[in-house]
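hey
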């Protein structure tokens, strides 16, 4: 079984540690994990050209092309991003926007067997104090993205206050994230905000 961990952070700090911990949990239960750091890829913005309406494939030829196949081949898709102004990083937003061909295939063209065979996971952090709705703006776009790629959106793990309490100094958080990685196949929904 394959899992793809897509990291939208730019430094080896909070988001990176969260993604690493979740990947460790996945590997414990036998997943072959590939980690993608979006900062290392040159991905252009979706132009709204509607080229994917005809074929279900993006007409832009850049490094996103190789990521489409990796998404198709993976059972678990993990998106990990810091939040800026309550939304994912710019690189992660571009990655999500370039998911339009999946939407075209699954919703407009109905090229699916009708089942959600994949599992969607979102890991995020923000530097500010805990607020009940800090991560609210991310939920609907991610639910739509995961649905487009044929994934059931099962796990959210949100961490607040990373400016004053970095994730790497919170072993309990990292252990809980790794533990969630081992539970990815249990079919339960988890929404955790610490």
């Amino acid at each position: 079984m394959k899992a793809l961990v897509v990291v939208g952070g730019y430094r080896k700090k909070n988001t990176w540690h969260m993604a690493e911990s979740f990947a460790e949990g996945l590997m414990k239960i036998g997943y072959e994990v590939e980690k993608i750091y979006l900062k290392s890829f040159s991905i252009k913005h979706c132009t709204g050209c509607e080229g994917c309406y005809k074929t279900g494939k993006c007409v832009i030829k850049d490094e996103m092309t190789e990521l489409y196949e990796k998404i198709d081949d993976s059972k678990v898709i993990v998106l990990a991003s810091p939040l800026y102004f309550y939304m994912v990083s710019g690189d992660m937003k571009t990655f999500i926007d370039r998911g339009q061909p999946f939407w075209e295939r699954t919703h407009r063209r109905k090229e699916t067997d009708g089942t959600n065979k994949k599992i969607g996971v979102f890991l995020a952090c923000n530097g500010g104090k805990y607020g009940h709705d800090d991560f609210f703006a991310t939920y609907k776009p991610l639910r739509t993205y995961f649905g487009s790629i044929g994934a059931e959106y099962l796990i959210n793990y949100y961490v607040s206050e990373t400016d004053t309490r970095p994730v790497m100094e919170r072993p309990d958080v990292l252990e809980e994230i790794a533990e969630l990685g081992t539970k990815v196949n249990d079919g339960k929904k988890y929404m955790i905000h610490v």
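Residues 2-193 form a domain with the Rossmann fold fold (CATH 3.40.50.360). DSSP finds seven helices and seven strands in the chain.
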